[in-house]
Amino acid sequence: MPASLNVRLSSPFAIILAASIGAASLASPGLHLDHVPLAVRDLPAAVAQFRSLGFTIKPGRPHQNGIENASIKFADGSYVELITAHDGSDPLARRYQEFLKTGEGASYVFLRDSQGAFADRARRAGGRRSEAGSFAFTELPASWRVPHLQLIEYPAPAIDSPEIYRHGNGARRLVAVWMLIDRGDDPIARELGAGPMHADAFSFDDRLTKSVELADHTRLMLTPRRAGDPPHVRTVAILIEVDSLTRLKQIAGLEHFTTRGPASWLPPSQVHGVWLGFVERTMWK
Length: 285
Hints:
Layout lengths: L22 H5 L3 E9 L3 H10 L5 E2 L7 E7 L5 E7 L5 H12 L2 E2 L2 E5 L3 H8 L3 E5 L2 E5 L9 E5 L17 E11 L4 H7 L17 E5 L3 E7 L10 E8 L2 H8 L5 E3 L2 E4 L8 E6 L5
Parallel strand pairs: 1-4, 6-9, 10-12, 13-16
Antiparallel strand pairs: 1-5, 1-6, 2-3, 3-4, 7-8, 8-9, 10-13, 11-12, 14-15, 15-16
């Protein structure tokens, strides 16, 4: 992240690593899952845990404002960002610190618009675009009532070595993210063309959700908030495609996953405030 990054206060969790986006992803039209920032209290411990699950971690660096991060990156451009803040010297870092006082977890989801049509429509409706170094992001219009969902662009994407994308557990990409919405948040469902409420076979629990079909057969799930959901969390679950669940469980040394349909899940109590799920490539439909 550039040291001079200037992020609007309405986007307190918009710390962006320069993503490495594969050529196939750049060529594929439409909206893509880009990344989910996961706020953690102890970054070295979180990095060690995800390494123990078989992920390759790209180290970040300490920033002058007190933020530190690392990332789990995939060849299609999607990634999970692990992020923390200590002794914050600017409003952004202090907002992260306040978030972490309540608990760990994820609040934002970033989508990437490879052709720009949706981003242009959002800006015409009142969304705001900001540029910072090698990336830019668009805040969606206030009338859409989802400040925790934003669009990211990479005019000059960075290129990482292939080893960064090679994960011992066979992880390949993010395929679905469950974002909590308050009841009545229908504008974003309409704007994104979400389907009707349904019980999704890949979900971490039995709640109904609206599915937004994204590029490359990925999904954003709009899930009504329940009374027991932590109030500070907006992104409740992340589903990752892997080559083999058997291989994953052997590498991770874990026997006790929660299995629902084709997916296996680790609960928020074990993964810094989010459901972390895995599905085999051949089962993802």
